[in-house]
Amino acid sequence: RYPYTSLVSGRCALITAIVAWEDNVVQTNAMKYLGQDIAQITHYAMFSCRNIAGSSKRSEHAKANAIDVSAFTLKNGEKITVLKDWDDSGRKGQFLRAVFKDSCKIFTGALGPNYNAAHKDHFHFDMGTWNSCD
Fold first, then answer.
1. Across-strand partners of 62?
2. Is residue 134 within 8 Å of residue 114, measured between CB atoms?
3. I need a labelling partner for 25 at 20 to 30 A (CA). Which of 38, 47, 92, 107 fits?
C-alpha cells in the first residue's frame, strides 16, 4: 500500500501484519489527526542478524520478524518523526501516539520511546512469541 524508504521483506506473519497495520492503523490515524494520507514510511532495516542489545538472545530482527519505523512523510511533504514529534502536544504527537497504541492490537511486540532510550527514535514492531506494548 505505502512506499517505504527501503525494502520491506520478512516472514509471512510480519508482512500480513504490516498490511493490516497500514490499512487499519496508519491510514485511519493519518486521516483522523492529520487530515491527509501518508506518502512514505521510513524504516530501518528489517533483517539484521543480531542479538537484542545487552543480551545473548537473538532479536526478532534476526528472524526477519520485526520492523523499526522511524518516520512518516505526508502527501504534502511534511515529515513526522518519532524522535522529534513523539512528545509534541499537537496533531503530530497525537498521530504518533495513536499509531503506536493501535499497533499493539496487530503486532505481538511493540516498543517505543517510553520503553527505553534505545527506542527514542523509532517504533519496534514484531510478531514474536512475547506480548509487549511499551
1. none
2. yes
3. 47
pTM tops 0.85, yes or no: yes
Specify the pairing of strand 132-133 against strand 109-111. Answer: parallel
Strands (E), the chain: 38-44, 66-74, 79-81, 109-111, 123-126, 132-133
Residue 97 DSSP SS3: helix
Q: Which H or E element spans position 83?
A: helix 82-85
Interval 28-43: pLDDT, tens: 999 999 999 999 999 9
How confident is residue 114, by pLDDT bands cut at 50, 70 and 90? very high
Contact between residue 85 and residue 92 where contact means Cβ atoms under 8 Å apart: yes
Cα of 63 vs its chain's centroid, Å? 17
Question: Given a cut of 90, is residue 116 above it in pLDDT?
Answer: yes
d(CA 40, CA 97): 18
